[in-house]
Amino acid sequence: MNQPVPDLLLGEFRPQMLKFARLQLQDGAAAEDVVHDAISAALEGVNRFSGRAALKTWIFAILRHKIVDALRERGRTVQISSLEKDEADMDEAFDALFAANAHWHPASRPRDWGDPEETLAQRQFWQVFETCLELLPANTARVFMMREFLGFETPEICRNLDISTSNCHVILHRARAGLRQCLERGWFNPEVRSAC
């Protein structure tokens, strides 16, 4: 490792950590607290870092646990109206993907993405994925990250956000469809891939 761990944590990783924590906690002060706690825990446990995973993966795992603890501790809720606004913004985009019979329009049909293992191993893919995640409405991205990154089960997401199970499933479907559409334009498009 070229840079010392404290420099990476405070310089390179901290802004990304804050951005992720703010998305999940919807509170700047709470985000600062969990990032501070995660960095402190990482600095205290740096001698236990074995290097089996990337340093960023390790520190974000610590942050993830701190965020989960904070969400569970606070029983945090968001206003349902903000989730409904996100959904309304995405409705128009998704309506264009499907014909009146609820089948894909031919131009919108999902394409073959090739070997998923090979794709996931590429760092550039994850940069495109992060950009696509940022393009989702904030609360839609939040629900997706609670499910897929933080590991919350649907009932827990629904309790935390005070939404119904069916609403949660709709939001997750829209998040996945939005990510798929973005990834097809930004990563799985043969013209884009040849430029990488």
TrEMBL record:
GO molecular function: DNA binding; sigma factor activity
Signal peptide range in chain numbering: none
Pfam families the UniProt entry points to: Sigma70_r2 (PF04542), Sigma70_r4_2 (PF08281)
Domain RNA polymerase sigma factor 70 region 4 type: 129-177
Keywords: DNA-binding, Sigma factor, Transcription, Transcription regulation
SUPFAM superfamilies for the chain: Sigma2 domain of RNA polymerase sigma factors, Sigma3 and sigma4 domains of RNA polymerase sigma factors
GO terms for biological process, alphabetical: DNA-templated transcription initiation
Sequence ranges assigned to domain RNA polymerase sigma-70 region in this UniProt record: 12-77
Similarity section: Belongs to the sigma-70 factor family. ECF subfamily.
Record-linked NCBIfam families: PRK12532.1, Sig70_famx1, sigma70-ECF
UniProt-recorded name of the protein: RNA polymerase sigma factor
